[in-house]
Design brief:
Tick-borne Encephalitis virus Glycoprotein, domain 1
């Protein structure tokens, strides 16, 4: 009988000892980022007899509470907290698992520019699909990838589109003579260094607007748009309209501060492809752009309305690029120009918002992460673009996941297959940037549990002591 008492009490001591271990682990991690508290669940041991006193207790399971932890603001861009369901997806650097999972969003950039945990596991997400995306509607890949913020969108982009939103003064004087006699603007030849000639007017334009553009190597150039007021046309056949001539050149400033003409048309001869006629109706609205066949001491001859495409070749780009033999590289540059927002109202010239889509090489200077997990990278070239969307994972039985330490888990057979989604999708939570989710341990509650478990331990020990006293009493009879 004494032996049975001792065994039952010993099982209580063992169970209470395990419970105290769980409590101490919870208290030790009460400030750990992403930590989830555990609790010990006890069950009686099967005795096998109807009137048996029982065989003591055992630890039935140790379960985790995956409830929400406290989210505290840190102000650090690479800190991220999940508010709601889900785990961050990480590449397993040990390669033992395909991926591992965590609620700890204390991230960093490694030496190669990858977004990683403090332990070096690369954060996984869905990269921007540039083939299907527009600036207004980013589309992300469906395949998981590591997020390399140092390289994404760092490659320069040549200017390929421009949009002019300018009001030209409708009261400006005529500056081009349609009859064939030069008024104030003769066509002169500006020699581009080392190559063909670039065409330009001689004389001040009615309006001049320079715009910085970029070649495919990230080199900056100045695209000069010279606007010359033409005449009001009323031929009795077509509706009355006002004509303007716009002429383009590209200039650069060398190391000595000298302005040089670096752009020319890629075709030789008399092609005047860099000169267009803009037509406006009597209400100041834009009608269309017409490519000029010839300008000079001859009448202006317009082709059909066209979508202007400026074509240049950049001689000796400022980036210092050279061919394999060390010679300079000529870089072709084609720019589609949109004049649809142009107007011609009386009063003054007004540049309302001319834009171009090129940019130079940029270095990462910061991040913005939205509630939907979309990471927007800010680069030194002034661009701010979405580059990836964080992936979140969930499991049917989170308590069955394999614990790896460091608030990291792995998929197991019992947990069920991983369920991947994006923040705010398929029941997943949101991502709070500049914040961390701290432990969900209730310190006060754990102290109460510790007292209760301590009493269980002491009571079980007292049973053993009492059993020994009874045994000694029997032996003394």
């Amino acid at each position: 009988m004494s032996s049975a008492y001792d065994l039952n009490a010993l099982s209580g001591i063992n169970a209470a000892s395990t419970g105290l271990g769980v409590i101490s682990n919870n208290l030790a991690n009460s400030q750990s980022v992403g930590f989830k508290s555990s609790r010990t669940e006890f069950a009686d041991m099967f005795s096998g007899a109807q009137n048996s006193a029982g065989n003591g207790t055992r630890v039935a399971s140790i379960t985790q509470d995956f409830g929400q932890g406290t989210i505290n603001n840190t102000g650090r861009e690479l800190d991220m907290a999940i508010d709601g369901e889900g785990f961050f997806v990480l590449e397993d650097q040990t390669q033992q698992y395909d991926n591992v999972y965590t609620r700890n969003g204390s991230f960093k950039l490694d030496k190669d520019g990858f977004l990683t945990t403090q332990e070096g596991n690369k954060v996984q997400g869905f990269l921007l699909d540039e083939t299907r995306s527009t600036e207004a509607n980013p589309v992300f890949s469906t395949a998981l990838s590591s997020i390399d913020l140092d390289e994404l969108n760092k490659i320069p982009k040549a200017t390929s589109e421009m949009n002019y939103d300018i009001n030209l003064d409708g009261e400006a004087a005529n500056n081009v003579d349609q009859s064939g006699v030069s008024v104030t603007a003769d066509l002169t030849q500006l020699t581009a260094p080392g190559d063909d000639n670039a065409n330009a007017y001689d004389g001040a334009p009615d309006y001049f607007y320079p715009m910085t553009i970029f070649d495919s190597l990230g080199g900056e150039h100045t695209l000069n748009a010279n606007f010359y007021k033409n005449e009001v046309v009323n031929d009795g056949v077509n509706p009355k309209y006002t004509s303007w001539v716009v002429q383009y050149t590209i200039t650069d400033t060398d190391a000595q501060g000298n302005v040089t003409y670096t752009g020319h048309t890629p075709t030789a001869g008399g092609d005047q492809g860099q000169i267009y006629e803009l037509r406006f109706d009597t209400n100041g609205g834009f009608i269309g752009a017409f490519e000029q066949a010839d300008i000079g001491n001859a009448a202006l001859t317009a082709a059909d309305s066209t979508d202007p495409l400026l074509e240049f070749v950049i001689d000796n780009p400022l980036t210092g690029a050279s061919d394999p033999l060390g010679g300079p590289i000529d870089i072709p540059l084609g720019i589609a120009v949109d004049f649809e927002s142009m107007t011609q109202f009386a009063g003054s010239y007004n540049q309302r918002g001319t834009t171009q889509n090129g940019y130079a090489v940029g270095d990462l200077v910061g991040l913005n992460t939205g509630l939907d997990g979309v990471i927007e990278a800010r680069y030194s070239n002034g661009r701010s673009v979405p580059v990836a969307q964080l992936a979140l994972a969930n499991f049917a039985d989170k308590n069955a996941m394999e614990k790896l330490g460091g608030q990291t888990y792995a998929e197991s057979f019992a947990s069920g297959a991983v369920q991947l989604a994006t923040p705010q999708g398929n029941g997943m939570g949101t991502v709070n940037a500049g914040s961390l989710e701290y432990s969900n341990v209730d310190v006060a509650g754990e102290l109460v549990n510790m007292i209760q478990t301590q009493r269980t331990y002491q009571a079980s020990a007292q049973v053993i002591s009492t059993s020994q006293q009874l045994t000694q009493t029997i032996l003394n009879l």
